[in-house]
Amino acid sequence: LLRWNEVRYRKKGLPPGTMGWPVFGETTEFLKQGPNFMKNQRARYGKFFKSHILGCPTIVSMDPELNRFILLNEGKGLVPGYPQSMLDILGNCNIAAVHGSTHKYMRGALLSLISPTMIKDQLLPKIDEFMKSHLSNWDGKTINIQEKTKEMALLSSLKQIAGMESGPVCEAFKPEFYKLVLGTLSLPIDLPGTNYRRGFQARKNIISILRQVIEERRASPKAQHDMLGCLLRIEDSRHKLSDEEIIDHIITILYSGYETVSTTSMMAVKYLHDHPRALQELREEHLNIRERKGPEEPIDWNDYKSMRFTRAVIFETARLATIVNGVLRKTTREMELNGFVIPKDWRIYVYTREINYDPFLYPDPLIFNPWRWLDKSLESQKYFMIFGGGSRLCPGKELGIAEISTFLHYFVTRYRWEDVGGDKILKFPRVEAPNGLHIRVLSY
Ligand code: HEM
C-alpha cells in the first residue's frame, strides 16, 4: 500500500524521483522542509525530478535554462497550473484560468490599465495621495508593519481601481478580501467552516459590492479617470468586456498586487533596518527629491525615474527574501521535456528560488547588497525571473515598483524606526511574520 503512488504513476520515460505516500505524496516534507526538500531531491535525482505535492503528480524543474524554456514556450502544451481553489475563487475569467487567444486579449486589456503611460498620468498621483495619508500619524507609535503594508497594498489598489479609499464600501470590502485570499490558498473542500467555503462566499460578496459600484458608475454622467472608468469605456465591440470579465479583471489586479507588493515592502523595511548604510543612501536619494519640491508637492514620474537606488533596494529585497518561489504550469497533452516524457495533466513547478542565490549571478548571494543592481544589465540578464517570464511576465512590475517606491519615499523622509524584536519571519512556503512584525516609529 505504501508503494501505491510509485506504482500508480510508474511510466516509461518519466524523470527520476519519488512519489511519496498515497494521496498526500510528499506534501508534508515539501511544506515542512521547504527549500531543503528541493535541495535534497536535487542532490539525489538532479535538477529535473518527479514528485507528488499539493495533491498532484508534479515535475520540479530547478534548471535555469529549462525554466526559461518552459516560460517562453507556454503555448506548446503548457498552461498555468494553479490549484483548483485559486481558480474557483478568482473566477473563470481570471487571467490564470485562461490561455491562448483569450489570454492574449485579457492581458491586453489589463496592460492598457497599468501601462507606464497610465502610471505616469493617472496612477502615480493617486498612489502619492494615498501614501501621504496612509503614512500619517505613525509618529511615536508601535506598529505592525506587516499589517500596515497589507492594508496599504489593498487600499492603494482600490483607490486606483475605483477611487475607493475610505468609507463604508471600503470597510465592507476589506474583511471579504482577506477571506478571499485565505480561500485561494486552501484545500478545495466545500464544507461549512472551511477557508475554501468562506473564500467562495467572500467572492460572492465582493462581486455584489463591485456590481453595485459599476451600476452607480453607469448611472452617473461624470467621466471617471480610474481603472474602472477605463474598463467601462472599452467600447470596441470585438473587445468589449462583459460585467463578469470587468469584475474578474478587478479581482485579478487586487489579488496579484496584494501579497507581492505588501511583502516586498515589509521586507524592505526589515532589510533597511538591518543595513544602516543602505538606509542612509536610500534616505539621501529621497531627501534630495524633497529638496527640489514644496512640502506637499506630490512625487511625479521624473522623481520616480530618478529613484535609482530605491529600485535597486526593491530588486535586492525581492531577490534575497524570494517573494515568489516559482510559478506553476500544467501539461495539456503528453509532451517531451529535457529528454523525458511528461504525461498529460501533470503539474510543472518552475522553481526559480535557487537562481536568486546563484553565486555566479549574484556574488555573495546571502548578503543584502542593493548596489549590485545599479548595473542595469543585471535586471535584463536572461535568468532574471523575479517577475516571471515569457508571455506571462508580470504586467504589474512597474506599477508594483512605483507603489513600493512611493511608500519608501514617505516612510524614510518622515520617520526613523527601531525593531521591537522577538518577531519571527518565515520564508517558506510564503514570506510572512506569523505574529506580525512590530516596529517603533519616531519622526525623522
Ligand atoms: C513586487 C511585486 C510583484 C512581483 C514580485 C510579481 C511577480 C509576478 C510573477 C512571478 C508573475 C508570473 C506568474 C506566472 O507566470 O504564472 C506575475 C504575474 C502577474 N502579475 Fe505580478 N508581481 C508583482 C506585482 C504585481 C502587481 C502590482 C500587479 C497588478 C497590478 C501584478 C499583476 C500580475 C498579473 C495580472 C499577472 C499574470 C499575468 C499573466 O498571466 O499574463 N503583479 N507577477
Automatic annotation (TrEMBL):
Output the superkingdom of the source species. Answer: Eukaryota
Q: Could you tell me the keywords of this UniProt record?
A: Heme, Iron, Membrane, Metal-binding, Monooxygenase, Oxidoreductase, Signal, Transmembrane, Transmembrane helix
SUPFAM superfamilies to which the protein is assigned, alphabetical: Cytochrome P450
Compartment(s) where it occurs, according to its Swiss-Prot or TrEMBL record? Membrane
Chief subcellular location = membrane
Q: Sorted alphabetically, which CDD domains does this protein's record hold?
A: CYP90-like
The cofactor named in the record is:
heme
Pfam families (UniProt xref) = p450
The UniProt entry lists membrane topology as:
Single-pass membrane protein
CC terms in the record's Gene Ontology section: membrane
Q: Which family does it belong to?
A: Belongs to the cytochrome P450 family.
PANTHER family named among the record's database cross-references: CYTOCHROME P450 26 (PTHR24286), CYTOCHROME P450 85A1 (PTHR24286:SF169)
Record protein name field: Cytochrome P450 85A
Gene source species: Tetracentron sinense
